[in-house]
Amino acid sequence: MGLLVRELSLADFRSFERLTVAPSEGVTVLVGPNAAGKTNTVEALQLVTAGRSFRRPRPRDLVREGASSARAAARLEGDGRVVDVRCDVVDGRRQFSRNGKRCQAADLPESLMSVLFTPDDLDLVKRGASHRRDELDDFGRQANRGYANVLSAYTRAIEQRNRLLKDPMVDPSLLDAWDASVSLGGATLLEARLRLWGRLAEKVSAVYAEVSGGEELACSYGCTLGDEALGLDRDDLRELFAAALAERREEDLRRQQTCVGPHRDDVTFLIGGRDARSFGSQGQQRSVALALKMAEVELAAEILGSTPLLLLDDVMSELDDTRRDAVVRFVGRGIQTVITTTNLGYFSPDLLDDAEVVSFGER
Ligand SMILES: Nc1ncnc2c1ncn2[C@@H]1O[C@H](COP(=O)(O)OP(=O)(O)OP(=O)(O)O)[C@@H](O)[C@H]1O
Ligand SMILES: [Mg+2]
To answer: Angle at the Cα of 92 (from 109 to 135), degrees rounded to 5?
Structure first.
């Protein structure tokens, strides 16, 4: 079954001097007016589970104005265990700990990972490729500690190579050395990402069919190394990537950046064979985003053997009745879920009967 959040406590975190919330096993609805601190609470939950915040704040932004340090802590319980996870912001730095012992942000999802859905995510199909890559990588990083390591090693290698490409006096043999490490890191990341994407894509299509009443969705991975990369193992990917880097070096030097590799890949969604980005209606695009998030919850449960925490920030008001019902049915399967809203009118009396409702007053 895994761990559940039993208590979240905040001290000088964002707008809160002090806050304690005890979420239920099922659905918890945080209701309150604008600027009441609902998203701040969701952000704190994400921070102590995913080890990061979707707002990508500077650490000091997390500290309440006028205070010197901030704390977000959660008590997780389940399977006869209690785990305390915590993020302190001290001297402008984030410090994570588990059961009182310092740990890295990337260690936290091992205890409990989370899937967050915000109104921005509803536009995922339309947004730039980096958002879709981040979506996949943020999931991978939480579901698999190895993925997190591979991703950060590759990101560092690309940053280093790009720095060299900006140097007009760059020594080609130095670039050769970085090409070797970029192609090895890139092949390792690509192999892991393709494996993950294969499993996720299958689920996205299945959930989409359910949400849309039978429409066919195909999900494909757009690889800057070409479609031939898709079936290769890591060694062959490394060779293919190294050859592409060598071939494009002149162009990379001109553009002062690495133009090929998994940091430039994208994923595409096809509804009835047509690209949802240019042909899908807004409703269809939103259904794809919804299906992707639900698929992430399902896949996380499969990989980790326990259900992740689902955080829905302000999305209910953005969905029509059909999609809202799909969300309610989905979370009703026993997924610990925290939903924020300004208006309980979006929720059925049935849902509210079973849910824990926490009211946030005006500040
Ligand atoms: N470090 C901080 N110190 C003090 N206040 C902060 C800090 N960071 C954010 N805030 C305040 O928190 C409030 C925003 O809270 P939050 O985003 O959680 O609101 P919300 O309840 O989600 O509102 P909405 O319904 O509009 O989404 C803002 O008024 C903002 O000024
Ligand atoms: Mg909000």
So the answer is: 35
Q: Does residue 58 line the site of ligand 1, with CB under 6 A?
A: no
pLDDT at 213: 86
Q: Does the Cβ of 39 fall within 6 Å of ligand 1? A: yes
Angle in degrees, 0-180, between the axes of helices 282-304 and 321-331, rounded to the nearest 10: 10
pLDDT surpassing 80 at residue 232: yes
Q: What are the structure tokens assigned to 162, written together? A: 């790009």
Reported as a single tens digit per residue, the pLDDT across 284-293 is 999 999 999 9
Q: Are 340 and 34 in contact (CB under 8 A)?
A: no
List pLDDT tens digits, range 235-290.
999 999 999 999 999 999 999 999 999 999 999 999 999 999 999 999 999 999 99
CATH of domain 119-305: 1.20.1050.90
Domain boundaries, the chain: 1-112+310-363, 119-305
Of 207, 195, 220, 203, whose CA–CA distance to 132 is shortest?
220
Taking only the tens place, the pLDDT of each residue in 295-323 is: 999 999 999 999 999 999 999 888 888 88
- State the distance from the centre of ligand 2 to the C-alpha of 340, rounded, in angstroms: 7
**Ligand 1 contact via 14 beta carbon (within 6 Å):** yes
**CATH no. of 1-112+310-363:** 3.40.50.300
Count other Cβ atoms within 10 Å, centred on residue 279. Answer: 13
The reply to whether domains 1-112+310-363 and 119-305 share a CATH topology is: no
